[in-house]
Specification:
Layout lengths: L1 H10 L3 H82 L2 E10 L5 E9 L2 E6 L5 E5 L3 H8 L5 H4 L1 H17 L5 H17 L12 E2 L6 E2 L3 E7 L5 E7 L5 H19 L11 E3 L8 E5 L6 H7 L5 H16 L5 E2 L8 E3 L5 E3 L11 E2 L29 H17 L10 H9 L13 H9 L10 H11 L1
Parallel strand pairs: 11-14
Antiparallel strand pairs: 1-2, 2-3, 3-4, 5-7, 6-7, 7-8, 8-10, 9-10, 12-13
Pfam family, one: PK_Tyr_Ser-Thr
InterPro entries: Kinase-like_dom_sf, MAP_kinase_kinase_kinase, Prot_kinase_dom, Ser-Thr/Tyr_kinase_cat_dom, Ser/Thr_kinase_AS
Keywords: ATP-binding, Kinase, Nucleotide-binding, Transferase
Length: about 475
């Protein structure tokens, strides 16, 4: 009996062994609970990540659909505009044959003497009474034989004389100016004027301003390539005299005249409340230098005006600029400004913003108006990145105008040029070419306006048209 009790006692675990087992079981339970907690946390994190990914995908899809919607709206507007242009073209001959008020113009030679008298009672048909020939002859712009003359007037003896070329330039100028429909034929007339002007180094006589007076001998302002003087017209109205600060050799004078005549001819065809009017040219006040004449804007540039009148509604300023640029870009063919910035936007006496400073450039498919001040492709801080790439044939375009529009909008709201925190233009060029764009100011911009501005700074294939920007601008205002 004693031996059996002893064996049973030996088989029973000691009390300490039982406590240890309990501790092990407790630890295992704790570990399982911790593992479950971690698993739940991971699941929650995964669900959050999935929700975040779904949210991003929804935002991307929403942006894509919004972009498609804008592109579709722009496509419809483009098709509508194209249809309108085609309709104008089909009806242009009818429009040209409508009676117009009697128009009588004198053709002056370079001495200011009357060379001929032009009369028009029916659109497209002119009577020419030359001062040295008593016979009156008629010019019909719809006559196929005269259209052949327009292609190469120097190949036709009756038109190749300098006196007749002067008359022909005046006829072309006024027929283009008075045309009621900006159609393909009108542009052909303009191209003909341009060809004749380049070949003969002549400008339509009506564009010369005589009896112009300079106010004082000191310039009011000097830019990168021109000096500004104040003058008065024969009617006593104040005028701005922009005198090109260019001195050329005999060899380069022809090229300069081509560039100068290009600006004159394109600018002379523009008429819009938000475009600075062109009054003419003068060659007498500044011998040997070209002088462009426009109305005097006493308020100066829009940046000067805003500094003097900070209470002005900047959104109205932007709207004026948009409407002016829309007029240029929707011409047939489009006109490219080429150097849009605050300094090139003047405020008229009626406090209306006018796009100005159409500088010297050539004409290719588009009519181009770009400033030659400093950089032949524009002003550095307002220039699109593709204009800095001299490995490609890049020139100012409607797309680069849109990039500059975004920069100009920023300039107007901040009162400072783009990248004002960077001192040197070379550093700005480097940053722009590496994809950097101006940062959003702390004040002044709503989310909608800033997004519209940022879209002007994307790749040139994805920038909005002026119609698209104006549509977005009207929607957010």
């Amino acid at each position: 009996m004693a031996r059996r009790r002893q064996q049973q006692q030996q088989q029973q675990p000691p009390p300490t062994s039982f406590a240890a087992s309990s501790a092990v079981l407790s630890a295992k339970a704790t570990g399982i609970a911790a593992s479950q907690d971690i698993g739940l946390m991971n699941q929650r994190q995964q669900r959050q990540e999935m929700h975040e990914e779904e949210r991003k995908q929804i935002e991307v899809e929403a942006r894509r659909m919004e972009q498609q919607k804008r592109q579709e709206e722009e496509r419809k507007r483009t098709e509508t505009e194209k249809a309108e242009v085609e309709d104008e073209y089909h009806h242009s001959s009818i429009e040209r044959n409508k009676p117009r008020l009697p128009i009588i113009k004198e053709v002056l030679d370079h001495h200011g003497q009357t060379q001929a008298r032009l009369s028009c009672f029916l659109s497209g048909i002119w009577s020419v009474n030359s001062s040295n020939n008593p016979d009156v002859f008629t010019v019909n712009f719809d006559d196929p034989t005269f259209k052949d003359v327009l292609k190469h007037p120097w190949d036709h003896p009756e038109w190749s004389m300098p006196s007749r070329i002067n008359i022909l330039l005046e006829l072309l100028y006024w027929e283009t100016k008075l045309s009621t429909t900006p159609d393909v034929f009108q542009f052909e007339l303009f191209r003909c004027i341009h060809r004749i002007a380049r070949k003969y180094e002549m400008i339509p006589p009506s564009l010369y301003l005589r009896d112009l007076v300079k106010e004082g001998n000191d310039q009011v302002w000097g830019g990168g390539y021109a000096d500004i003087y104040q003058g008065r017209t024969v009617n006593g109205e104040l005028a701005c005299l922009k005198v090109l600060r260019v001195f050329t050799t005999l060899e380069s004078s022809k090229q300069l005249f081509k560039e100068f005549s290009q600006e004159v001819l394109v600018w002379s065809q523009l008429e819009h409340p938000n475009i600075l009017p062109f009054l003419g040219i003068n060659m007498d006040l500044f011998p040997g230098r070209y002088c462009l004449v426009s109305p005097w804007c006493g308020h100066g540039s829009v940046m000067n005006y805003l500094s003097m009148h900070p209470e002005v509604d900047k959104m109205e300023i932007i709207k004026d600029i948009l409407i002016g640029l829309q007029y240029l870009h929707t011409r047939n063919p489009p006109v490219v400004h080429g150097d849009l910035k605050g300094a090139n936007i003047l405020v008229s006496e009626r406090r209306r913003c006018c796009l100005a400073d159409f500088g010297l450039a050539g004409m290719n498919t588009l009519q181009t108006l770009s400033s030659a001040s400093g950089n032949p492709r524009g002003s550095t801080r307002w220039m699109a990145p593709e204009l800095f790439d001299y490995t490609i044939t890049s020139r100012p375009s409607m797309s680069t105008d849109m990039y500059a529009l975004g920069c100009t909008t920023l300039e107007i709201f901040t009162g400072a040029p783009p990248f004002s925190e960077i001192k040197h233009d070379a550093a700005v060029t480097f940053r722009v070419m590496n994809g950097f764009r101006p940062s959003r100011p702390a004040q002044g911009f709503t989310d909608g306006l800033w997004q519209a501005v940022e879209r002007c700074w994307v790749h040139f294939n994805d920038r909005p048209s002026i119609q698209g920007f104006l549509y977005e601008f009207e929607r957010i205002t």
